[in-house]
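Thread: Protein nucleotidyltransferase YdiU, structure

OP (GT): Posting the sequence first so everyone is looking at the same thing. Length is 487 residues per the record. Can we get the structure tokens written out before standup tomorrow? I want them in the notebook alongside the other entries.
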Amino acid sequence: MKTLDTLTFDNRFARLGDSFSTEVLPEPIAEPRLVVVSQDALALLDLDPQEAQREVFADLFSGNQLWSDAEPRAMVYSGHQFGGYSPRLGDGRGLLLGEVLNHAGEHWDLHLKGAGLTPYSRMGDGRAVLRSSIREFLASEALHALGIPSSRALCVTGSSTPVWREKQETAAMLVRLAQSHVRFGSFEYFYYTRQHDQLKQLADHVLACHYPECLQQPQPYEALFRSVLERNAELIARWQAYGFCHGVMNTDNMSILGITFDFGPYAFLDDFDANHICNHSDDTGRYSFSNQVPIAHWNLSALAQALTPLIEVDKLKEILELFLPLYQAHYDDLMRKRLGFTTAEDGDEELIQRLLTLMQAGKSTDYHLFFRHLGEQAPADALQVVRNDFVDLQGFDAWGADYLARSNREGSDQAARQARMHAVNPLYVLRNYLAQEAIAAAERGDYAPVRELHEVLSRPFEQQAGKERYALRPPDWGKHLEISCSS
């Protein structure tokens, strides 16, 4: 295990030079205090968990101190935001402190969010608030525990520094880990500014550092784009299967690694509503839950456009056509598992869609608890338990009869079925009202609730004694919280 003093830095992105990022020092926050830390994320850096107890821990991860080998850089990029192109964005409140090399040979970006003003801050103040920092921390780690690719969150550091949003709040910093912070918008920036040499340099960097297997292909850039597309098809399938709404799928928020990235007004569905809009600033519903699939495809098309200096247009179009079939195959496989099936049958996709249509009709079926309860008893008994959440009882009974017949063809006993279904259907989900309760306590100086919620969500499939309230259906007020992009 390593200490804070023995971390090994190898800052590959910084070595690309000033065309790709700008050297900036973080602006410290006053009276830094550790709010919450992820033991699993510490392990990615080989850090001894006891290091989080040291006073210097909060100083280092709030910008009050720096490692001698850190090279803080604000990355430049552009992006399509709500469909319109913004030519110059960049890290307006975040800094890439450097890349830590662990014993396994993995490079992990240390990204400090809320680090103060940068050349890309535009009209902002470069700060993040405690509320948004806690939300990103919880979401990153909760998604990872569910098996959904995501950036990771190391810790949140609070402070007494005042920040103005809709009201006065306090500044905080989040340390985010990812193996790359390159975005679709990173490529768009160099394409639209006609810096094609730098575009190629960025692609070569991504190939060498993150997709070395593509270098063995006859056309490495084509292989790179296809790999990015494949990863994003699987990512979006996992979002849809587990009811996750990102809320701001701008191209600058899409990772070249196919991980969930840049959390804002996200939400997990409570009652199933395919048209749910989790961002109250999204007046047109561009980033509604049901639109996440076509928007991901659109964003990949925007990336393809940026790669036209490196890849023939016809080849890019050919690769883009793979997205929807790949997405559907991943989604169907995930939903089969959630329903307890181990094999594939031709009618499965129709069975899944009929179920979602029935859920949509009443908007009163808890999307997560439905699947959990469906696995707790034998199929016939479980169907009677979940039946009461549906409005169209006749339609549900017809679906239930088909589901029962399909389950019987699987032939496994109930103990095996329950174990199989409980391993993929979470009991605990990050619901907005739970996050809001933890945030309210943290804003009063009580960090115990956010730490407990994090611990519960780190084992979402495992029933935990004394944590029953985290598995309850949300109260009505908890289903209608408005979340904005404000941070």
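GT: Both are above now. Quick notes for whoever picks this up: The chain has three domains: 14-181, 185-332, 341-374+376-422. The chain has a mean pLDDT of 95.
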